[in-house]
Design brief:
Elements (H helix, E strand, L loop, with lengths): L4 E2 L6 E2 L3 E3 L9 H13 L4 E3 L14 H13 L6 E6 L18 H15 L4 E6 L8 H13 L3 E7 L3 H14 L6 E3 L22 H9 L4 E2 L9 H8 L12 H17 L3 H7 L11 E2 L4 H8 L14
Parallel strand pairs: 3-4, 3-10, 4-5, 5-6, 6-7, 7-8, 8-9
Antiparallel strand pairs: 1-2
Helix pairs in contact: 1-2, 1-10, 8-9
Length: about 325
């Protein structure tokens, strides 16, 4: 089993693969959810990632991911075995036509979301609480002090950011240094083996770990990269199953990513690995630590993905 990743200047050590829960209450609930969570722990996992918004775009329930996670925490009594992550401040997303550019990150918005999260999760303290988006019209001082208020109240232990650009994170780090605060301990942003060659982001309110943000993580190891969409929304899985005809029109469908897909096929043979394991193996060889978040549709997918922890991929494998 792979060694845990310690976040500097915290007491947290994380499994190299985090369990994403966007499918909780959609693909699995109740006893099926219990099996997913318990199996993840049995395989060495300890990081469970949720968000207040998951998955409000599917009516009628809101906050269902946190509710499912809270159900399991209550039934299992395993709160002390996991690092609980959740996020607030996402734009309203109840239907596909909602405008995700309309920010809701004020202190009142964040207060509303964190109280709902704590109630749904049925816990007193969130281990890492994230801003799910940024609002550059708000000051860094206001945003950091909101999180510090939650920390002083004991509602969060640490805080992070998601979909923030490098300049804003650097500004936050500088403010926190001035005030003697720990600052963000983790950053959730889009990164996968195909990000380098992607044609466009699937949502322009998302931020990818490329360019300045990639450099930031190389130089700032106190802020752990926690990539989402780590399996590229299934692009390489579809290519593996159906070939090039199956992926035409996909944002990842570029000449560069066809070369990456072909290399993934070679690596599957080289390591006797699944496509999920090959795609997740990419994160073993970044120039900075990372904990990609993987959201399984079922227990077999979870077991397969966690198998990557037993394969030692080489950095040269991903030189495409």
């Amino acid at each position: 089993m792979a060694k845990q990743i310690a976040i500097p200047d915290t007491d947290l050590a994380l499994c190299p693969i985090g369990l994403g829960t966007v499918g909780a209450g959609v693909h699995w609930d109740g006893a099926d959810a219990d099996r997913i969570f318990d199996t993840y722990l049995d395989l060495g996992g300890n990081v469970i990632d949720s968000a207040r918004i998951y998955s409000d775009w599917i009516p009628p329930e809101t906050g269902r991911s946190e509710r499912v996670l809270g159900d399991w925490l209550t039934r299992s009594g395993k709160r002390d075995k996991v690092v609980i992550i959740t996020k607030g401040g996402h734009p309203v997303f109840l239907k596909p036509t909602d405008d995700l550019h309309i920010s809701r990150m004020t202190p009142a918005d964040m207060r509303n979301d964190i109280e709902l999260s704590l109630k749904a999760l049925r816990i007193d303290t969130i281990d890492i609480y994230f801003y799910h988006r940024d609002n550059k019209a708000q000051s860094i001082e206001e945003e950091i002090e909101t999180m510090e208020t939650f920390r002083r109240e004991g509602k969060v232990r640490y805080y992070g950011c998601s979909n923030w650009d490098a300049a804003r994170i650097i500004e936050a780090d500088a403010y926190c240094k001035q005030k003697g605060y720990r600052s963000f301990i983790a950053d959730e942003a889009l990164l996968n083996v195909g990000t380098k060659y992607i044609d466009r982001l699937p949502d322009d309110t998302l931020v990818a770990i490329t360019g300045d943000l990639y450099k930031y993580h190389q130089e700032n190891l106190r802020n752990l990269a926690m990539p989402y969409m780590g399996v590229a929304s299934g692009f390489f899985h579809i290519y593996s199953a159906k070939g090039e005809e199956g992926v035409k029109g996909n944002p990842y469908y570029t000449p560069g990513n066809i070369r990456v897909a072909q290399r993934c096929t070679e690596l599957m043979k080289k390591y006797n690995a699944s496509i999920s394991q090959v795609v997740l193996g990419f994160f073993q060889n970044l120039p900075f630590p990372s904990v990609p978040l993987y959201g399984p549709e079922n227990i077999d997918h979870l077991k397969d993905a966690m198998g990557v922890l037993n394969i030692a991929f080489d950095k040269s494998d991903y030189d495409v």
